[in-house]
Amino acid sequence: MERTTFDMQELAGVDRYKLLTGLIIPRPIGWVGTVAADGTRNLAPYSYFNAVAATPPTVIFSTGRPHGRIKDSLANVTATGEFTLSIVDESLTRAMHSTSTAYPPEIDEFVEVKLTAAWGDVVEAPFVAEAKAALECRVSQIVDLGAPASASVVFGDVLRIHVADEVLDGTRIDHRALRAVGRIAGTTYVTTADSLFDVEE
């Protein structure tokens, strides 16, 4: 087959973004809940999100710094050291997409998109009550990328996981019932219930 090779150092930022996010799919969405130093709640989705270890239970999300601006989620976790991650299911896709808008820091996205803020056991940051699963996390480290920093990766220790009984079988998750949403590119998404198949041993 014929291939086109791209030197990533020679591409414009938008083209690097299109290639990476178009190929690394689907990307799970971490709906990050935080609280600002003044008490304002914040909710924002990140498709640079994943689990990276089970022992210790660790997740990451990464946020860019457009034009050097630190996003609210990063500012809040830097100040408080805490955040939640709500798992986005198909029924919450439109609300999640709405919170991707860059609202001013004083806007409470829970109020703006009419979601219910729920509070866990150990973290002073809200999660989405309507979500079928949510994680309470404490920041373990923040790694800046680039010089000067153009992105930051937040590592979180998972302290509690709250899961709706309807998608749970012991500690196994029914993915057809969860219908978690992953991002493809732009406004295109996919669910965990789409075209599932098993590989025979």
Tell me what you see in this structure:
It is a single chain. The chain is globular. The longest helix has 11 residues. It has one domain: Electron Transport, Fmn-binding Protein, Chain A (Pnp Oxidase, Chain A), CATH 2.30.110.10. It is built from five helices and 14 strands. A seven-stranded antiparallel β-sheet has the order 3-2-6-9-10-5-4, with helices on one face. 17% of the residues lie in helices and 39% in strands. It is α+β, with helices and mostly antiparallel strands and 201 residues long.
| Beta-strand content | 35-45%
Shape: globular
* Annotated CATH architecture: Roll
Main beta-sheet annotation = 7 strands, antiparallel
Quick one: CATH superfamily? Electron Transport, Fmn-binding Protein, Chain A
Discrete helix count: 5
Question: Span between N and C termini?
Answer: 30 Å
The amount of helix comes to: 10-25%
Q: Which parts are unreliable, with pLDDT below 50 for 5 consecutive residues or more?
A: none
**CATH class, anyone?**
Mainly Beta
How are the strands ordered across the major sheet?
Answer: 3-2-6-9-10-5-4
How many domains comprise the coordinates? 1
- What is the average per-residue confidence, as pLDDT, rounded to a whole number? 94
Overall structural class, as computed from helix and strand content, comes to: alpha+beta
Which series of helices and strands comes N to C? Answer: HEEEEEHEHHEEEEEEHEE
Radius of gyration based on Cα positions: 17 Å
Count of distinct strands: 14
- For this structure, the CATH topology is Pnp Oxidase, Chain A
